[in-house]
Amino acid sequence: MFEGLGDRLQGVFAKLRGKGKLSEKDIDAAMREIRLVLLEADVNFKVVKMFTDRIRTRASGEEVTKSVTPAQQVVKIVFDEMTDILGGSSKALNFAAHPPSVLMLVGLQGSGKTTAAAKLAVMLRRKGREPMLVAADVYRPAAVEQLQILGAQIDIPVAYFKHKSASKIVEKAVEEASRSGRDVVILDTAGRLHIDEEMMQELVDIKGSVSPCETLLVVDAMTGQDAVNVALAFREKLDFDGILITKMDGDARGGAALSMKTVTGKPIKLASVGEKMDDLEEFHPDRVASRILGMGDIVSLVEKAEQTITEERARKLEEKLRKHKFDFNDFLEQMQQIKQMGGLEKVMEMVPGMGSISRAQGMGMDERHLGRIEAIIQSMTPEERENAQILNASRRKRIARGSGTSTQDVNQLVKQFTQMQKMMKQLTGKGGMGMLKKLFPF
Amino acid sequence: MAGKRKKKRPPRRKKGERPPPPAKKLPTTQKKGEKAPEDEERTVEVGPGQEPEPVIVLDEPAVEAGEADAGEEDEKEEDDGRLSKGMFRSRKLLRRPFSRMATRRAIDPEFWNDAEEALIAADTGVECAVEIVERARGRILREGIRDIDGLKGAFRTEVAEMLRSFGDLPEPSDSKPRVLFIVGVNGVGKTTTAAKIGYLMKNRGEKVLFAAADTFRAAGIEQMEMWADRLGIPVVRHKTGGDPAAVVFDAVESAGARGIDVLLVDTAGRLHTKKNLMEELGKMWRVADRNVPGTPEAILVIDATTGQNGIIQARVFGEALDVGSIALTKMDGSARGGVVMAIGKEIGIPVAFIGMGEGMSDLRPFDPEEYAQALF
Questions:
Q1: Residue B62 buriedness (CB in 10 A; 0-12 / 13-18 / 19+)
Q2: Domain segments of chain B as ranges
């Protein structure tokens, strides 16, 4: 998501960078390009107009013309404006003062409501709540079964009552939640077209009968220019509270996400970023803007790291690093942690500058390559893992056989590893590696 | 597949190879051959200050003046068939340039801008929008068109012509059974489309079999089965989580034994960015390819709301298997599905079907003229 957009925008900035002074003409040319880039990313054409106009005005002002590094200033302005159109700061979900809190998901067919409902339940459970799912889709074949199966997979109860009226089902489900002491009820409604009066009325009825404290519009990240029409129609009928963007793990350039807040005035609250059930995240406009513009996202990275790496492990590692005892065991552990953090590719994306580099070089951060490295290390004896020095030719041959790789692969790994050790010595020697140590111990 | 066009499909046309527009071009800032979006010189606006624009004064009084100030509000639409009905909302926007012009009673530079914006708003992408406007303008000036209907006609003609230029539909494979893969990203309506195509073909008197190869999504198989039940079409299924290629294998065997004419394979939705899932698709394709005489066919399902990402989808799916045509679904909303033009221009895949709703009979062969008609 957003990669294509980021790369193209950075291309525009690169052209500005070589210039000591920016003339009106330079800025106009840059704005024309940005316009095109955004339109091709499916950003709504009205939003594009507004966005480029605002940047143009600010970029012609003093802060840029008087600056020694005008290009940097332009990047900053674009970053500010982009954060702004994405919604400024992140907005939390609403919960009711008296449980159960009812959360309702609405949207077009195929936007991913059912999966999002299950992911939302997992996320809320992680935060200490006790959610219940409600299957309120009485139309699509097997929709109820889909939610029931998902519920069973994630071990969260799914309420369903056979009834023709969705609002009756929902009412009963909320009663059931109060009885069984569930504090959050997530309603998975049927997908519908925003121009279908009858179906939209059904949502109004549901909303009237259980008054949800949070209504989320579910929007597919790949949606084109029509996204805003859909959102406006839903807002008119339903006045939803926030937006949940799905399928952000695709390579859509995210125009829908970039247009939503400006057009509807409703914030994007959540984003689904992967296939796994815990791949739902809070949406942080500033971090997303930073990622789009290739500035990385250290904050998210640290958060992710904190989620996966325990204090104790970190301390142990630090000590080992200080004593220059970083060995293959630690290396393996680090790799596994990266995997837990969503894979190397995701991690790289969050490191400033790395995202575009790894993509530009087509490195593709092959997970299978990591798998091979893992296999090689696991084919070593405990002694070998602790001391790479003893790896002579015959040992290397054995390891290659054991891991199903070639001796060259083993050689390469050992070489890289010793280089890494050397580098670490230098780094730790200067003392205080700060965040780097925590993030990139290898 | 629509059954009426039997011509062999010409090799896919690449970007830039299209025949030049029939007439000499008007002076614009868009130079010939500068099609790549990367071109920095490219100017999209055809605005004042660049070239003296001919302002054409209309010779008719503003017939549609009533519409002119309607702006964003609802317009009363005449009912001319289901497609236009389905694209009810879409008309408003694409008509706006015309209605605005009607008040001014002249074609000024603003009109071309409006038209281009309207097309971009229909998801055609910038490149297609620029080209359509440019060609329509050529036609309008060349033929001295001075009335609103004529202007619309010019745009319709260009859209239809562009759609036709993406090549003819692939000839149905003469293998027995024909194997048709229904593929696409998540949530575009693959299962529903598979069911509807099954219904179309069954009504044509062919013996149809479904393969429920969406073994990934929770209740994906159940959804297919419910459709199959409704339509009275048999279905081959395995358990959820099974190998979809094995489902294809069994379905092919079963089709052979039962004397089936068409085997429709409903695949799991997958984002084209997931390499392993695309490889899985390739494997399913190879299984079918090995076990039936002749080659399988694939239909890519694109949702009308899809933006420019549709181009990449088409390209990547086309690499995994041989995508011969597109089924454009959810055309009963306000989305205009203009991305099929961007796809066609870029990759040269024609549209075979258009889906207008949730009913069994809401899928029909795509007709470029009808689509163009509904667009303006």
A1: middle
A2: 56-164, 178-375
Per CATH, which fold does A298-439 belong to?
A: 434 Repressor (Amino-terminal Domain) (1.10.260)
Amino acid at A358: S
Closest in A110, A141, A275 to B188, CB measured: A110
B130 — pLDDT class (breaks 50, 70, 90): very high
Are A140 and A190 spatial neighbours (Cβ–Cβ below 8 Å)? yes
CB < 8 Å to B187, chain A = 109-112, 220, 247
Q: Does B165 touch chain A (CB under 8 A)?
A: no
* Residues 6 or more apart whose Cβ sits within 8 Å of residue A156: A118, A121, A122, A125, A131, A132, A133
| Top-confidence range, A411-425, B57-71, B318-332 | B318-332
Which three-class secondary structure state does DSSP give residue A310? coil
Select A3-85's CATH number: 3.20.20.80, 1.20.120.140, 1.10.260.40, 1.20.58.100. 1.20.120.140
Helix (H) or strand (E) holding A178: helix A166-180
CA distance B346 to B165: 12
Instruction: Give the class (CATH, top level) of B56-164.
Output: mainly alpha
Q: Which of these CATH numbers, 3.40.50.12160, 3.40.109.40, 3.40.50.300, 3.90.950.10, describes A101-292?
A: 3.40.50.300
* The two structure tokens encoding residue B130: 């620029």
Enter the tokens of residue A272: 């689904």
- Window 113-152 of A, Cβ < 8 Å to B: 139-143, 145-150
Compute the distance between CA of residue A90 and CA of residue A279 in angstroms, rounded to an integer.
Answer: 17
Q: Which residues of A fall within a CB distance of 8 Å from B89?
A: 195, 229
Contact state of B305 with A150 under an 8 Å Cβ cutoff: no
Looking at every residue in chain A, the average pLDDT score rounds to: 83
CB contact at 8 A, B96 and B114: yes
Closest to B89 (Cβ–Cβ): which among A150, A195, A247? A195
The domain made up of B178-375 has a fold known as Rossmann fold (3.40.50)
Average pLDDT over residues A145-157: 93
- The full DSSP string for A54-113 is HHHHHHHSHHHHT-SSHHHHHHHHHHHHHHHHHTSS--PPP--SSSPEEEEEEESTTS-H
* ipTM value: 0.72
